[in-house]
Automatic annotation (TrEMBL):
InterPro entries: Calycin, DUF1934. It comes from Candidatus Borkfalkia ceftriaxoniphila. This is DUF1934 domain-containing protein. It holds the Pfam family DUF1934.
């Protein structure tokens, strides 16, 4: 987070799937741009970077790593790197809402993830909040 245009922020990430869900709380940086915003944060031992524009790109690096691309109406593919090997996955974006402003951001995406002939419904919600030192 060396970019001076980035604001320090707190990020709440809620994930849901057929098998359950979790909520992560992280700290990072946020840069608003009309052409597309950038969000970077760390949570649960992993680093995340989100890039918005005509689509949404999420890069996760950690014990499990991936680069997901979401674009409504356009199927995409990725490899999920795990300690046990790489997994090929297909992503179908069912809906996506990106609301970014200079002071906050909220990103919601619902998608179907296909792995090995099976598929499951997933959702992610990112909320970008001001960061306050306590």
């Amino acid at each position: 987070m060396n970019d001076n245009r980035m604001k320090r922020v707190r990020v709440m990430l809620e994930t849901r799937s057929d098998g359950g869900g979790e909520t992560l709380d992280g700290k990072g940086g946020y840069e608003f741009r009309k052409s597309g915003s950038r969000l970077y944060f760390t949570a649960d031992g992993a680093s995340f970077e989100l890039l918005t524009g005509n689509d949404l790109r999420i890069v996760r690096k950690g014990e499990v790593s991936y680069e997901l691309r979401f674009c409504v109406g356009e199927p995409t593919e990725c490899f999920i790197e795990t300690p046990y090997g790489n997994i090929h996955a297909a992503v179908r974006t069912d809906s996506m809402q990106i609301n970014c402003s200079p002071s906050h951001a909220e990103i919601n995406v619902e998608y179907t993830l296909g792995i090995g002939g099976g598929s499951s419904a997933h959702s992610m919600r990112f909320a970008v909040l001001p960061y306050f030192n306590k």
